[in-house]
Amino acid sequence: MRLDKLLERLEYGVVQGTAKTEVTTLVNDSRRVEPGSVFVCISGAVSDGHRFADDVVRKGAAALVVEKDVEVPEHVAVIRVADTRYALALMSAAYFGYPAEKLKVVGITGTKGKTTTTYMIKSILEGVGHKVGLIGTIEAVIGEKKIPAANTTPESYTIHSYFAEMVKAGCDSVVMEVSSQGLMLHRTAGIPFEIGIFTNLGKDHIGPNEHRDFEDYKRCKGLLFKQCRLGIANMDDQYFEDVFRDATCQIETFGFSEKADLRAENVRLVSRPGYLGVAYHVAGRMDFDVEIDIPGKFSVYNSLTAIAVCRHFQVPVEKIQEALKKATVKGRIEMIKVSDKFTLMIDYAHNAMSLESLLATLKEYHPKRLVCVFGCGGNRSRDRRYEMGEVSGRLADLTIITSDNPRYEEPQAIIDDIKVGIGRTDGKYVEICDRKEAIRYAIAHGQPGDVIVLAGKGHEDYQEIKGVKYPMDERVLIAEVLEELKAEKQE
């Protein structure tokens, strides 16, 4: 493969050598360089690829793509671009033969709702015979193959390798979560999105390793709507107009607003023993009734989003109704049967906005008590801890503060920060640092009519402590607790 073929959609300058150099592989990780590779020097937050120039040349790299000066032997081609992350994205697309152009790509951005909505869309489209790939927070799905996710939106090279696999597997479309980080770091640059979706925006992901401020967060979300054909937006969100200010796509809207193109009317909560759901009427550009086995207003938004997308795939109404009735997502209001007397669920809510939305939703079902078990991640904004503590203290009847992913912080220090937030309310709480013991306490003290939420971990099956991810799946912990409680009862 010739280097200039990989560069064909980029503006670049040849610093030394020639763009007609033959290359074997495209690499941005110095450990994966082999003879003939073209190495793209990425300036990352932790390390700078330009520092490895000598190392990759010794390993046999034939060419380097740079945005800074490097000194390497004359036989190595050096190509200069304005932004190597952007270059990697467009070169990756070329390297894999532009697979995104053989798929209908649906991208979803927003603070919450992305994951559930991707699975809803996948479920509906597959119900009418489409073969749909998925890339998201939990996993990438390619046919029967499931690849656990490291990032919500992977590096551009990985995305295009997935697209290529999807095309090979016979997929005709893909639905993917598009994070603000992914947009900011050009991971999705050059992808021809058929449809881009905006769910909502909350003040999250602001910090030294994420976005410098909320304005930057908003701006990055809006980038998706400069590279899609159609933008579908939640017009009820207060930041809708800000996000779409510079949009270049056609725009459609959904929501509760009478001005929305697709709207929810006559929403009613559905509740029976062991079941929480919601039903409503779809009005505007479509006209039918729907019921979802996931509670709350945000489930209405998620399903409306899915309906708005599937309308453009000409999916029959009865197929939409059927698929939404069965839609469930691991770790997103995932009901776990533990008792005939009270309800227990697992949810990924791990910031103040998502926790408030979740708890406020569950309160609408009038549980005897709403019990919230949660912790906060280490090496993240301390404000998030105060805010989540305050939300749980205000909305839950009992908060059980525990550990999440402490990372390199002391779990007790994180718990103490959460207590500062709860202290601003009259909320009752207990603190149990060990997460399994916290779950045991919640189940052992469950009362008839309670709704218990284990928040923060969701689909995760590990706990990260001091740089090591230890196996920890809440479903396993619940099963172990039930066995232990049963054994204690029999003694």
Which terms would index this structure?
alpha/beta; Udp-n-acetylmuramoylalanyl-d-glutamate--2,6- Diaminopimelate Ligase, Chain: A, domain 1; UDP-N-acetylmuramoyl-L-alanine:D-glutamate ligase; Protein-Tyrosine Phosphatase, Chain A; eleven-stranded mixed beta sheet; six-stranded mixed beta sheet; 32% helix; 24% strand
What's the SSE blueprint?
Elements: H1 3-6, E1 13-16, E2 26-27, E3 38-40, H2 53-58, E4 63-66, E5 77-80, H3 84-95, E6 104-109, H4 114-126, E7 132-135, E8 139-142, E9 145-148, H5 156-168, E10 173-177, H6 180-184, E11 193-198, H7 214-222, E12 228-234, H8 240-243, E13 250-255, E14 262-272, E15 275-284, E16 288-292, H9 297-311, H10 317-326, E17 334-336, E18 343-347, H11 352-363, E19 370-374, H12 382-395, E20 398-401, H13 411-422, E21 429-431, H14 435-444, E22 451-455, E23 462-465, E24 468-471, H15 474-490
Parallel strand pairs: 2-3, 3-4, 4-5, 6-10, 6-11, 7-10, 11-12, 12-13, 13-14, 18-22, 19-20, 19-22, 20-21
Antiparallel strand pairs: 1-5, 7-8, 8-9, 14-15, 15-16, 17-18, 23-24
Helix pairs in contact: 3-5, 4-9, 11-12, 12-13, 14-15
